[in-house]
Prior knowledge:
This protein is of the alpha/beta class and 272 residues long. Helices cover 36% and strands 21% of the residues. The chain has helices at residues 16-19, 37-46, 104-115, 130-136, 144-149, 162-170, 188-203, 205-212, 220-230, 237-252, and strands spanning 5-10, 30-35, 51-55, 66-67, 73-75, 82-86, 95-99, 122-126, 139-143, 158-161, 174-181, 263-264. The strands form 2 sheets. Strands 1, 2, 3, 4, 5, 11 and 12 form a 7-stranded mixed sheet that branches. It is globular and about 55 Å long.
Amino acid sequence: MSPKIRVGSVNYLNCRPLVHHLADDSDSPFxxxxxxxxxxxxxxxxxxxxxxxxxxxxxxxxxxxxxxxGVSIASEGPVASVALFTRKPVAEIRTVALDTSSRSSxxxxxxxxxxKFEIAPTFARxxxxxxxxxxxxxxxLLIGDAALFVDHRALGAEKxxxxxxxxxxxxxxxxxxxxxxxxxxVSPAAVRRLQETKEAGVRSxxxxxxAYVAAMPQYREVARQYLRENIMFDLSDRMLDGLRAYxxxxxxxxxxxSVIEPRFFAAAPAAP
Length: 272
């Protein structure tokens, strides 16, 4: 029997449709573990996983890796789960606490501050706790479930959706993360399985959302709407245009050394 393909998934709601039932049966070629996005990239670097749902910016460190075609975590317009929270007008923000779970969103925050918001704050890494972040800084970047479910109004904070800000500024989608790994890590049949899992997960998004927040029923409609309306799971040509624009902007402010073009795994054809 061939060794299982070790998959590193993001431990947020937004990735659950991409791994729903992926490793449920003994015949599955995959094992799945769940970690914050930045950790997924580190595990791939360390060889602890074969394929990771890595932040888009992390691909700049691994340009010879391949990407699973047609699958991503993306948005066009409001994403709901990546946001800058602040009690001050944007023009008055001087310090920003950055969620330590993030890499792509940190780079996006730096880009938007420089190019859209036209501010030059200082940045500090911080554990993702909004109250303590805002106690020490003018604004806070939160990602994932922490940003999606937090009651920011109770803290007197405004929520600035960074997916919406990017699309308003560029007219393009934003690609937050995708499956990537060494070119030899995944067979065409396994790539097709990942694509089919995505398609099945999208069809089951309400059930996935309900199961995810079963212990927090007050978030049921938020979770359902998020998977239906905020998150997109394809990796279309238009999304790739958004990804390329992001890499160009990241290069322009010195976050990455060069603009990279994704390479893709081959996928087996769909069953007739």
